[in-house]
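Q: Here's a chain of 360 amino acids. Please give me its 3D structure as tokens.
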Amino acid sequence: MIDDPAFLDRLAKLGPALLTGLDALETARRHLHPQRFSEVREALAPLHEKLASALATFEASEAPEEAAAFAEQIAKSAREAEKALSGFLQPMSGPEEILRAMHRHCQAQQFLYPLRKVLPPVSRFFVEAPFRDRLDELDPEPAEGAMVGLHRAGGAPPARGGFVLYVPESYDGTEPWPLVVALHGGSGDGNDFLWTWLAEARGRRFLLLAPTARGDTWSMMGPDIDAPAVCSMVEYVQSNWKVDPSRILLTGLSDGATYTLLLGLQEDAPFTALAPISGVFHPANFQNGNIERAKGKRIYLVHGSLDWLFPVMIAHGTRDALQEAGADLVFREIEDLSHTYPREENDRILTWFTPHLALP
């Protein structure tokens, strides 16, 4: 128990500023588009000022000894969030600066997540609204041998070819759970992309695997070095946790979406449903037998009408090819979506994937 009113007052200012900033960054990432960039920056500016001020005040005085580790942890998150907001606000922000800002947004969440047990607002931040009054159910005492939480393999990020696995803390190993395998976009990594799905996994109770490509992006040219790696990761999860083999979803963004179709339609691939978002239908699918294997395959295809990298007419061609092949296809064109991740679509994808994962 911390009995230092001045410290608690500083924390009471920093916490809300941090959570509001993180939420605003999520919104900014969703609505990134060249024509809307000034609008996004205008919305972020006052939140950056508020967080920067609260962080400076928080760090200006030493934390009580019993709260030192806690204070450093939340400060690390706040520093990354402040840098992320600043990255969006730089006058000459270009693609590289925005990508760095997005990475820092993910880092801020990674630093913050361990504090959910001591800060209920943090716990509520990392779960969808229907579960925010059920926090005790989400963080019970771990079942013996359950191996819950975050698991990383393949070296420290941004090492290529590894993965991060999230096993919700409520997993007890008594029954098989669905598995969602989420593939990042070009130049990304699984350590960051995991946060696109973690809140949904935590409340709805599915295992979440976020691999990292062995190269800068997925194997879409030359030898396919990623397929054996990703499939072996799935096998590893299946051998150490109870996975329902009839409910394994492969999804991805941009290059991850393109590779979702390349990998997910391969012969003997373990995935029972596919959800590519803002990708393309690689020509190799017509040469390697994938188009024939699309018959009857459950596919949820998402694309934005405002996509500037892969214009939506490309998605229309993918839709038509998959429908002609006999895929069990859902096509969602989102009017206000650019080449970004539509986090709100996770709910529709999960409900389509299996009614078991629909919100209560």
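Q: Can you summarize the key feature?
A: Residues 131-357 form a domain with the Rossmann fold fold (CATH 3.40.50.1820).
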